[in-house]
Amino acid sequence: MSSLQPVRGTHDLLPEAMRRHRAVVETARLIAQRYGFQEMATPIFEFTEVFKRTLGDASDIVTKEMYTFVAGGRADEKDSLTLRPENTAGVARAFISGGLAQQVPVKAFYAGPMFRHERPQKGRQRQFHQIGVELIGVPQPQADIEVIACGAHILEELGLSDAVVLELNTLGDPASRSAYRAALVDYFSGHIDSLSEDSRNRLERNPLRILDSKDEGDQRLVVEAPLFGDYLNPESVDFFAAVREGLDSLGIAYRLNPRLVRGLDYYSHTAFEFTTDRLGAQSAVMAGGRYDGLIKTMGGPPTPGVGWAAGIERLAMLSEREEPAPRPIVVVPVSEAVATTALKLTQQLRHDGFSVELGYSGNLKRRLQRANKLNARAALLLGEDELASQSTTLRDLDSGEQELVSLSSLTERLSRLA
Predict the structure, then answer these.
(1) Domain ends where: 257, 290, 318?
(2) Quick one: 312 and 333 in the same domain?
(3) Whether residue 398 sits in one domain with residue 250
(4) Which of 77, 157, 231, 246 has an alpha carbon within 20 to 30 A of 28's alpha carbon?
(5) What Å distances lie between residue 363 and 117, 245, 342, 369, 395, CA to CA?
(6) How confident is the model at residue 157 (pLDDT cuts 50, 70, 90)?
(7) 10 — phi, psi (to 5°)?
(8) Is the pLDDT of residue 95 over 70?
(9) Residue 30: which domain range?
(10) Is 86 annotated as a binding residue?
(11) Do the annotations mark residue 262 as ligand-binding?
(12) Is 126 annotated as a binding residue?
């Protein structure tokens, strides 16, 4: 091979991109901490059964998009492992296996890579990164409000409030969902010849997924489909009203979207997405909802939960926020005679808390050119005269001024640089 390239659907986070990536993560981590979410991390691969239980055996993610392999080349299905396509399932598995049911509410924040075998396009990669929060153990609508408020706060801190719209819907409780599911099956069964093949396959198994079909024929039928709101019982109506009132009281604007759904039965009540029109086809930048049936589905005790996940790449593309690169101090040995002293000085200044680069080679002009390329704040010129007087010439690379500074007072002098 004449040239090596990253695998299709993956990308390198080179320093400039990494600074934007980190700005998103650090901003989210800071804001999530204020809301009481504690950071945790789960393995990037789980037993395949974790995702089959949570995402459904017949879902597109499980059947088409997961990276699944057998550990150690063994053929036993129980050894089947999958790179995580999302992280809620991993957090829920950790809640169960970690015995956290006695510690509710559990408030978790995470950040890390996910993997899906999809057709790559702008804002969608096969290895991508997400931030997310999960609030487990609180059945009241206040949990939904807090989770959404945390997401809105992160987007605000990233300067994206004007770039996104919060779309909101309710999926009701299980009784409401069952009534609506029956109504959808009845409606679409009357138009089965007009449905796409995918939607015909979903009709009995997962009819709510038909509502977000991208097929034009399906979309025409969806326009006339029953609305979830017509099948909500009083308890579900009251829950959604409480969520909306809470968001109103916090000044968090939203747009009702009765077609916003989640296809799996363990979802209930609140569903929401922060969407944008600035990323082409990939409009969702943060999506979440309440999943009161998830942990029971996975074999744990009945435990309510609500959370969201957001794509770091998409947020970084939208936000102009970038973690600033530190402006280093550059130590420039003028001759080989002072090379060892320069090395020691470099290390000492690093221990004193400064970002320091060593001018490795080349004449003085070339070393100073490299200092400017690094956007260094100052250069420390160290020659034999400076060595004899236990001092260094400090050149301010912003003003061009320079002065002789004793090594004993150097740390204090550098701390005064703007």
Answers:
(1) 318
(2) no
(3) no
(4) 246
(5) 51, 69, 15, 10, 16
(6) very high
(7) -125, 165
(8) yes
(9) 15-173+233-318
(10) yes
(11) yes
(12) no
Mean pLDDT of the chain: 92
pTM of the model: 0.90
* Integer angstrom CA distances of residue 183 from 170, 216, 230, 270: 16, 22, 10, 20
pLDDT tens-digit map of 185-201 = 999 999 999 999 989 98
Residues 6+ apart with CB under 8 A from 248: none
Distances (CA, A) of 337 to 329, 364, 387: 21, 14, 9
How many structural domains comprise the chain? Answer: 2
Would you say 130 is a known binding-site residue? yes
CATH number, residue 28 = 3.30.930.10
User: Nearest 5 degrees, angle CA 13-CA 16-CA 19?
Assistant: 85
What CATH number should be reported for the domain holding residue 374? 3.40.50.800
Residue 204 lies in a domain: no
Same domain, 303 and 345: no
**Structural domain includes residue 223:** no
- Please check if 156 is assigned to a binding site: no
Instruction: Indicate if the alpha-carbon torsion angle 228, 232, 236, 239 is positive or negative.
Output: positive
Each residue's pLDDT tens digit, 39-82 = 999 999 999 999 988 887 656 677 678 999 987 766 566 789 99
Q: Is there a binding annotation on residue 116?
A: yes
